[in-house]
Amino acid sequence: MRAVQNSLFFRDLHSAFAHLGEGYSGHLSFHSTRGYIGEIAVVIHSHNPREGPLNLMRHLCFSRLCRPLLFAAATTGAAFFAGPLAYADEVQPVAQPQPVPTLTQTVTSMVNSWGIPAPAIDPQIAAAVDTLAQQVQAFVAPGMPYADPHVAAPVPEHHEPVQRPVDGPNYHWTNDPVSQVMAQKTGPVLHRVQGSWFSAPDIPEESLQAQAQGVSLYGPGTPIYVGKDRLCTVGASGYDAEGRKIAITAGHCGKIGDAVSSADSWQVGPSGTVVAKGSNLDYAVVELGSNAQVTQKYNNIRVNSVGGPMPVTGNTACKQGVATGFSCGLVWNHDHRTTASQVCAMQGDSGAPMLVGDRVVGIINGGMIPNVNYPCTTPWQGPFFVPTISTNMDAIVSDLNAKKSVGHGFRLAHS
User: Which residue among 97, 125, 141 closes a domain?
Assistant: First the structure.
């Protein structure tokens, strides 16, 4: 079925070239090899031999085989955000969004910034390419979610002494040479998510202290079980306007009514429930119970504010997730709803806080391209992984406030 949908998608893309007018023709090609996105090319030809071909997106790729990685990733961000803001009315952004430049405007500006004079583009060609970019955006928008489906939420065993576990569910220490090399770390390596070679964040002392009091502690970066088979990460926690304790994670992590428990103190048992989800944004609201506490500081990550200006293209954002820990990467592009970046993430990191200094500006959602499983699984990859999509916190807060339901008036827990 997916192959049929893809065929129809490319048929529609090619049909758009019919609007180029006399004297021009074009095609779009898409190649995938061994699970990698190899190349997407938009090629437009002039039949005037003195003009030659115009290839606007020569190497748009995500694999280590591509030489112009920076240009590739930057163009990827441009393609993703080139289309119109389809859900602007529903989102009700905190600030009026600025007009988003088209793909051709973005690429031209980028080439000029590198000191290469960009030639003028025929308006007919520019319009056709920008139309194609909007269709590409619609195709890739669903993305590859980064909730880990390879888990089973553990059943709490009561009367266990509170201590740092030696081994447990999604908590496995190893000291073998391969794990050390893959994690670029000497000494024991902690694995918490299947398929990750990173040394994962350990259970912090503050979580153990809370567990000793019979409660689970929720803060930025807390790993959580959602339902029976999902492992995700908390982006932020605090209170809503009614004083309810709230945690925010990715919407695809579970469904409304799913029980939530901390993977750092699973012995406490379920301590929250998914009560709301974004309709057009990938976030979920967890209402926490009496056996839960909220904090703005967790496992050496402290956040003092929510939202605010997103970093501009080329600047850095960071994240803290259960699978890959703390890491930073370049921001490629953003609109008022979502951001594309080269921040390392994989399954289990969904919902993790996107950080700029002490601000949580978004939550991790997944890989940029649907059905392409090439996440960041080891430090050796460097920037060679599918770019990461995150949902902006300003959009989440605005959406919650517009709904006037659980979570509206969200504010951080100041501790």
Answer: 141
